[in-house]
Write a structure and sequence with these properties.
By secondary structure, this protein is mainly alpha-helical. The chain has one domain. Helices cover 43% and strands 8% of the residues. The protein is built from eleven helices and six strands. The protein has helices spanning 12-24, 27-38, 48-55, 67-79, 90-114, 121-129, 193-198, 210-215, 218-221, 224-230, 262-279, and strands at residues 134-135, 146-149, 152-154, 164-168, 172-176, 233-234. The strands form two sheets. The chain has a three-stranded antiparallel beta sheet with strand order 1-4-5. Strands 3-2-6 form a three-stranded antiparallel beta sheet, with no helix packed on it. Helix 2 crosses helix 4, helix 5 (90-114) crosses helix 6 (121-129) and helix 6 packs across helix 11 (262-279). The protein is globular, with a radius of gyration of 19 Å.
Length: 280
């Protein structure tokens, strides 16, 4: 049974209910109510019809800049004190996987409201971010995974890419590949191995709690299909100085391309994206 259209998350009726329930319910009870509106499963799957059902639970005009997302972050931080979200529990698992669903919803918002015929996701995102305060300081190292098989590099979808991480308000995370496509673990416009492995996830932790709210729960609570596809794929290491050929900063290791380090290629991609935003 779907929630009524007036109670889709982000609708005016929802905001009225949300405001009222925030005065009456505990943070965990409020999160449980949101999960009931979504009929959030224990595990996200690759079923495209199920993804469409979940996305239909959000108001189509719920934007990444809506205040609701800031309130949700605060709620999760209150509901899960330090080092508790990664513990067993249905709500813990649902809240973790909600991060992926939110990123999909936010990417779809940009596509539906800012992408015209013939435009890439990258161009649509640049239009959305025009005049907004976004950041590219995070290198997105963890979104650059590949597999090494007997010394040979294997890219997701067998396609080399320099993935760019765009942050908005330190909670909205959008990942673009070299072809200008959004990377998400699920995509209503077509699933991809690259998206599943290197895709975006909404951030609950901000600067102070990123590790315990956004990173630690991955091992226990990630969807089964993603854990299966991640096997053998690794991010570059963060060692900046030394002889580690697998470093993000190495110009000669498996993560480098055309004699340039992945770090320098991401920096160039970020510079190009800033120009695109200014021109949009």
């Amino acid at each position: 049974m779907h929630p009524s259209p007036s109670l889709t998350i982000g609708s005016p009726h929802f905001h009225a209910e949300w405001t009222q329930k925030r005065q009456l319910l505990t943070p965990q009870e409020l999160l449980t109510w949101i999960m009931s509106l979504l009929q959030m499963p224990e595990d996200l799957t690759e079923d495209p019809q199920e993804l469409q059902r979940l996305l239909a639970c959000f108001d189509p005009d719920l934007a990444p800049h809506d205040r609701f997302w800031k309130d949700l972050v605060k709620l999760v931080q209150q509901a899960f004190p330090k080092n508790t979200l990664d513990q067993p529990g249905l709500l813990n698992r649902q809240v973790h996987q909600l991060r992926y669903l939110i990123s999909i919803q936010q990417a779809q918002y940009v596509r539906n409201h800012f992408r015209e015929s013939g435009m890439t996701d990258r161009e649509a995102l640049a239009r959305y971010l025009k005049g907004r305060c976004y950041t590219l300081w995070d290198s997105g190292r963890l979104h650059q995974k590949l597999s090494l098989v007997e010394g040979r590099r294997v890219y997701p979808d067998n396609q080399a890419s320099v993935n760019l991480k765009v942050l908005y308000h330190q909670r909205v995370e959008l990942i673009l590949d070299s072809q200008g496509r959004f990377l998400n673990i699920l995509d209503p416009e077509g699933m991809s191995e690259a998206g599943t492995i290197n895709g975006a996830s909404f951030n609950y932790g901000g600067f102070c709690r990123h590790r315990d709210l956004d990173i630690a729960p991955i091992g226990r609570h990630d969807p089964r299909f993603r854990r299966k596809k991640l096997r053998g794929f690794r991010s570059p290491t963060k060692e900046r100085w030394g002889t580690d050929s697998n470093s993000f900063w190495s110009a000669h290791g498996p993560y480098s391309q055309s004699g340039q380090s992945l770090a320098s290629l991401v920096k160039r991609s970020a510079r190009d994206f800033r120009r695109l935003v200014r021109k949009s």
